[in-house]
Specification:
The chain is about 35% helix and about 20% strand. The protein is of the alpha+beta class. A six-stranded mixed sheet has the order 1-2-6-3-7-17, with helices on both faces.
Length: about 475
């Protein structure tokens, strides 16, 4: 393949700074104000209109970029499901390029719910900029992605740097497990073509000092576990000691799945063999990050992680299953809790599963462990809600390894680092199956204390600006490989 002019890094950095300050950040302020919660958290999302407002905001800015990116086509694609109901829309963009290759860039625009605990002066739906940080729900996860994707291509066009054809996909269902996305991928497959490079801007970075590439993602199995022991609540003084507590039964059942002393998952069907290369990678990252592996979390005074081995901490959050209880029903608030033995306890379970594990098999293994032989003859049910596969990147080709090193050194001043992430991006597993020969640059701005999904979420603005330049640099290197 013929070579094209190289990206002037100084010019690109200046241009990215200008585009972010003058165009992207004002739009992100508007975007943060829109409570476009993902369908899993807003059943009547279509009627409320927040998702549509976010789509129009982002698509409108993207359309305006045609004056900078000749040939850009922007379309909001809308499909219906089997019941005739609207699926969440997808913003689909095409940018013409040279050669017969395609680069796919991906992000999403739906958001997690509000979450409590925002500090004074901050809120999920009101943007606040404090120095390098833009606070508010969704700016970093993942509202910036559409803007940064087109800005990266714009940097190339400004310098007449040749690149391959690009396709940008921005979905609106990622935080709900991307259940609408397969239909869109199937529908758009002829238009997407064959991708040789996939760029995803929905991942994390372990620090803000260099470019980080995600090499694996955990999957997710979630659902509701309910224990019923009575048909109605009764006086605890009358029943306790005879009727077992539904909470105690639930604790007993959860201990089948998780060792409460160590957090290790006891269901062997939820574990996989960890490749040697990923263990080496974890050790290298632990050496670079040091205490940052765990110190980034908002510990209460005196608290500490489950292990002091930093490489094991990394493997725990990237290649091992882990259980979180994320919600509860059947318990009154403290102010209204009387002396009553409650009839049931129900909790929402979030089980992160390792890459390479079939999520359907994982769901079945978890359900079997929870429901088998209920203590005291209680009624125990586990109803699965989400089952998303993890992902393990293919071996890194030499051109991409060199390109990411060059980009990271040029714009961050340090070499790039690679590591797995503990979260889930279902789209990566879908594309991995559809394009088995493609290379992947999975990265993002979710670094220390950015707190995606939680209170005080923020976007680290300098990282967004530098990451935009890095994406442009890698797309240029892809054409010249």
């Amino acid at each position: 393949m013929s070579t094209s002019p190289r990206l002037n890094t100084t010019t690109a950095a200046v241009s990215s700074e200008r585009i972010w300050e003058e165009e992207i950040l004002p739009r992100l302020h508007e975007y943060i104000r829109i409570p476009n919660k993902s369908p899993a958290f807003e059943a009547d999302w279509a009627a409320k209109g927040h998702m549509e407002k976010a789509v129009k905001l982002i698509a409108g800015w993207c359309e305006s970029q045609a004056k900078h990116i000749p040939g850009l086509k922007v379309e909001v694609v809308r499909l219906k499901n089997e019941k005739g109901e609207d699926r969440t829309p997808v913003i689909y963009m095409e940018i013409p390029g040279s050669g017969d290759d395609t680069v796919v860039l991906y992000g999403h625009l739906d958001k997690q719910p509000e979450m409590t605990g925002w500090r004074a002066g901050l809120s999920p739906w009101e943007p606040v900029r404090e120095g390098d940080k833009l606070f508010g729900r969704g700016g970093a996860d993942d509202g910036y992605s559409a803007f940064a994707s087109l800005a990266a291509i714009r940097l190339l066009r400004e310098q007449n740097v040749t690149h391959a054809r690009c396709v940008v996909l921005i979905e609106a269902c990622e935080e709900s497990g991307s259940y609408d996305l397969p239909a869109y991928i199937e529908h758009l497959a002829p238009r997407i073509g064959k991708a040789s490079l996939v760029v995803c801007l929905d991942s994390g970075c372990a620090n803000y000092e260099q470019l980080w590439m995600t090499t694996s993602l955990r999957g997710l199995v979630s659902g509701n576990l309910r224990v019923d022991i009575l048909s109605e609540g009764v006086h605890s003084g009358d029943a306790s000691g005879i009727v077992p507590s539904s909470f105690r039964i639930l604790r007993q059942i959860l201990s089948r799945v998780e060792d409460e002393q160590t957090g290790r998952i006891r269901v062997e069907g939820l574990h996989v063999h960890i490749p040697h290369a990923r263990r080496e990678q974890a050790a290298a990252v632990a050496e670079v990050l040091g205490e940052e592996v765990y110190s980034k979390f908002p510990w209460v005074p005196g608290a500490h992680p489950v292990t002091t081995d930093r490489a094991e901490q990394i493997l725990n959050r990237t290649w091992r299953p882990a259980l979180s209880v994320t919600g509860v029903e059947g318990m009154p608030t403290l102010s209204s809790a009387g002396n009553v033995l409650r009839p049931f306890t129900s909790v929402k379970l979030s089980m992160r599963i390792p890459p390479r594990l079939d999520p359907k098999a994982a769901t079945q293994a978890l359900k079997q462990a929870l429901e088998a032989a209920p203590p005291y003859g209680a009624k125990v049910t586990f109803e699965g809600e989400k089952a998303s596969a993890g992902w393990d990147a293919p071996p890194l080709e030499k051109w991409l390894e060199a390109a990411t090193h060059e980009a990271s050194r040029a714009f961050f001043g340090r070499p790039f680092m690679a590591m797995g992430e503990g979260g889930t991006i279902p789209f990566m597993e879908m594309l991995g199956r559809r394009f088995p020969e493609a290379q992947f640059l999975i990265t993002g701005v979710l670094g220390p204390n950015s707190n995606a999904h939680g209170p005080n979420e923020y976007l680290h603005i300098p990282t967004g600006k530098k990451l935009t330049c890095c994406v442009a640099s890698v797309i240029s290197a892809h054409f010249n490989r």
